[in-house]
Amino acid sequence: MDRSVFLALGGGLATAVAFGPARVGYGLFLPRFREAFSLSQSSAGLIASLGFAGFFVALIITGWLVSRHSARLPVVLGSVSALLGLVIVAVSQNTLMLAIGVGCAATSAGFCWTPFNNAAERSVPETKRGRTLSIISTGTTVGIGFSGALALAVAGLTQGWRVVWLVFAFTALVSALINGWAMRRMPYSPNATRSSMNWAALVVPMLPLYGIAWSFGVTNSIYLSFAVQHVSETGGLAGVRTNSAGPILYVALGIGGLIGLATADLEQRFGLTALVRVVFLCSFISLGVLGWYPAAWWSVLVSAALQGACVMILSSIFAFWSERLYPGLPTVSLTAVLVVFAAGNIIGPVAAGYTADATSLAITFLGVACISLATAVLFPGRTWRQQLARGAS
User: Which residues contact 199 (CB under 8 A, 6 or more apart)?
Assistant: First the structure.
């Protein structure tokens, strides 16, 4: 197999762990955590934001590591941080341990994504690069679906969530070993990377890209943090245990995300402007439907599937859009976009937690849906085309 295959498979596994259990596991098991650790909505939001803050910090560190070492180091480091954090959560006995574990595990998402842009730029032919990055990004949906399936299997067990988090930790160990081996022969030249890092180029405003990154950072972090809690508080889904509603939602989210594999083809067929606007209309529907009808099978499945599709399509768009604008800075440019995304991640859950305490989660979800609608309406296609032309010149 050529390097693109190794990179796609290893990258898919790394993102499956980092953006699956390590990043969304907290929201998936939030009803259990609130019961076990007596968390209020605002406390739950603060812990969620702590996890996203770990993602933010890891992104900054990763940009520095890749520029001076290699893509392999942060990927392995991310898998190890996921392993440590997931184990801490599995054995946690108090809120402090839980928060530390969530924060540590969430750093893996910051370590494990952007290096693959660098690795793909250096080792994958241009004709295969878009598809390879789409496969790597779509590892996320496999991790989310896997997390939901495991949670569903232990839904009736009081302490079953601890077993699931230990299984999560084992997958992180496997990811560290496989990627440490698979990326050992990737071509890399630290001196060339350092000399090509024109940081001033990133000052040129990429407002449309930064805008959609921030918008989805806010809305998606709120969805991942509180969707399961909202469904559980309203009685869950008819015919199944209340504890099963969250895992079902996440399985549907993972399945919906499989459309991310076709992102490059969809963009080629319909154009980026139309694709971005449709994605944010889907985000608006996803948030609004869950806000209005949190206890109906059809609404939960539709909402989760649409949210999964939004996550995966935008993940792929972030990767190949930044790579096209700044082909000489594949990791640095994606990191810049994800820093804005992570800033939205940090703000979202804290604001939602306090808003929910003051009003309700239903009102919170309906209000957040308006952010996605505004993004769909305001996204400026002409600006995108002008910036892409400048980036390609």
Answer: 332
Please provide residue 36's backbone torsions phi and psi, each rounded to the nearest 5 degrees: -75, -35
Residue 197 falls inside a structural domain: no
Domain range for 105: 3-184+204-392
Instruction: Report yes or no: 345 and 217 within 8 Å, Cβ to Cβ.
Output: yes
Q: 341 and 124 in contact (C-beta within 8 Å)?
A: no
**Per-residue pLDDT tens digits for 102-148:** 999 999 988 987 788 777 777 777 767 767 777 787 788 888 888 98
* Whole-number Å distance between alpha carbons of 268 and 243: 41
Whether 195 is covered by a domain: the verdict is no
- DSSP secondary structure string, 54-93? HHHHHHHHHHHHHHHS-SHHHHHHHHHHHHHHHHHHHH--
- Measured distance CA(188)–CA(128) in Å, rounded: 19
Note the pLDDT tens digit of each residue in 156-212.
776 788 999 999 999 999 999 988 887 776 655 554 444 444 555 555 546 788 889
First-to-last CA distance in the chain?
Answer: 34
The residues, any chain, with a CB within 8 Å of residue 40's CB and separated by 6 or more, are 353, 357
Residue 70's CB: how many other CB atoms inside 10 A?
22
CATH value at residue 141 = 1.20.1250.20
Mean pLDDT to the nearest integer, 226-235:
89
Amino acid at 203: V
- Total of domains in the chain: 1
Cα distance between residue 345 and residue 268, in whole Å:
29
Instruction: Supply the pLDDT for residue 393.
Output: 42
The CA dihedral of 111, 114, 116, 122, to the nearest 10 degrees, is: -130
Is the pLDDT reported for residue 382 higher than 70? no
Which spans in 184-271 are helix H? 190-196, 207-233, 242-256, 263-270
**Rounded to two decimals, what is the model's pTM?**
0.82
